[in-house]
Specification:
Length: 187
């Protein structure tokens, strides 16, 4: 709408109509919460797959490293030793930790800064963009967003449930602090 009596010398321009609920100003739909959750789960699968052998190795080593002793009265005593935390374990653990960090930096920071999508978001056809410019967020903004996501989880999951009732479907801390929105891809 234009102002019928603009101040002298100031041109009046019509204002853009407000965006409909659930839609960004550019007309794209904000990503539903369930798509974001599934994308997050998909992104978490590779680190879990890498650490499963480590966990099985610890348990297998503990179960198979016990000693059995038979007392003179015929009673058998079986003791379980501690898991074998030797040099191999610590090297494996350290390499695993570095691989998980590399995965997180590549998938959630680097890849999203170039494409707007992590592996999980690509599978769910959703994109993270800046709410003001519509451009992909930069690497360090995405790093900060991922770090702040921990606070969204820490406050009894309220922050990650926030998109269920938020007009722009943003997480309470991580998305709002970094001005990020997640949009459904256009078909």
């Amino acid at each position: 709408m234009t102002d019928p009596n603009p101040p002298a010398g100031v041109p009046s321009y019509p204002q853009a109509p407000p965006a409909a609920r659930g839609f960004a100003p550019n007309g794209q739909q904000y990503a539903p919460w369930h798509l974001r959750v599934v994308a997050y789960i998909i992104d978490g699968i590779p680190p879990i797959i890498f650490f499963l052998p480590l966990l099985f190795g610890i348990n297998w080593g503990a179960l198979n490293s016990g000693t059995t002793t038979t007392l003179s009265n015929g009673t058998t005593i079986t003791t379980m030793n501690e898991p074998p935390f030797n040099a191999f374990f610590w090297v494996w653990y350290f390499v695993g930790f570095l691989l998980v960090l590399a995965w997180l930096f590549w998938n959630t920071c680097y890849r999203q800064s170039k494409t707007g999508k992590s592996i999980g978001k690509s599978a769910m056809k959703i994109t993270t963009v800046d709410s003001n410019s519509g451009q992909y967020k930069g690497f360090w903004w995405l790093f900060l967003r991922q770090w702040l996501l921990g606070f969204d989880f820490a406050i009894c999951y309220i922050g990650v449930l926030w998109p269920l009732w938020d007009e722009r479907r943003q997480c309470l801390i991580s998305d709002k602090a970094t001005s990020a929105v997640v949009l459904k891809d256009a078909k």
